Amino acid sequence: MIAHAKANPxxxxxxxxxxxxxxxxxxxLFKHRAGIEITHVPYRGANQGLMSDFLAxxxxxxxxxxxxxxxxxxxKQVRGLAVTSANRFPDQPELPTAAESGVPGYDVSSWYxxxxxxxxPAEIIAKVNADxxxxxxxxxxxxxxxxxxxxxxxxxxxxxxxxxxxxxALWAPIIKEANIKVE
Length: 183
Hints:
The chain has 183 residues and is mainly α. The chain has helices spanning 2-7, 22-34, 46-55, 66-74, 122-137, 139-147, 157-177; strands at 13-16, 39-42, 61-62. It is 46% helix and 5% strand.
């Protein structure tokens, strides 16, 4: 795919669930790191024609969350080329990472977090964090997340703050380079 895109710059199209979404940013980072020019086609969410246009062949590629594509890959409706995370997805180990597929150092993972107002007392934050850590270790909860292609793990408030800073540093130059403006 990368070789084809390099040999035919600007002729391939790729879809994401919207401007500024993690899949959009991941695609722009992929283009940058792979040194390819492919045309982004933004949708307003995954359920607003993105998957149907992709399945109908109106898009060459699609970037989205694992959960939205995992079943389509398993049922052979689409061909998974790579996962964007640093590690292969445990339930689909035959899918290589983007780094293994020719884009060294590429690592993008979506994540979810719980935020509270800035003035929330430290003891409340500690209690919510401790409770969430217990919940995320529960086997039933892990199984429910697994169906969505999500690998749950807890972090500390300090680790979350560091992830926010790291993401801002990763995405700022990509947003500027791709001239991404939230609509």
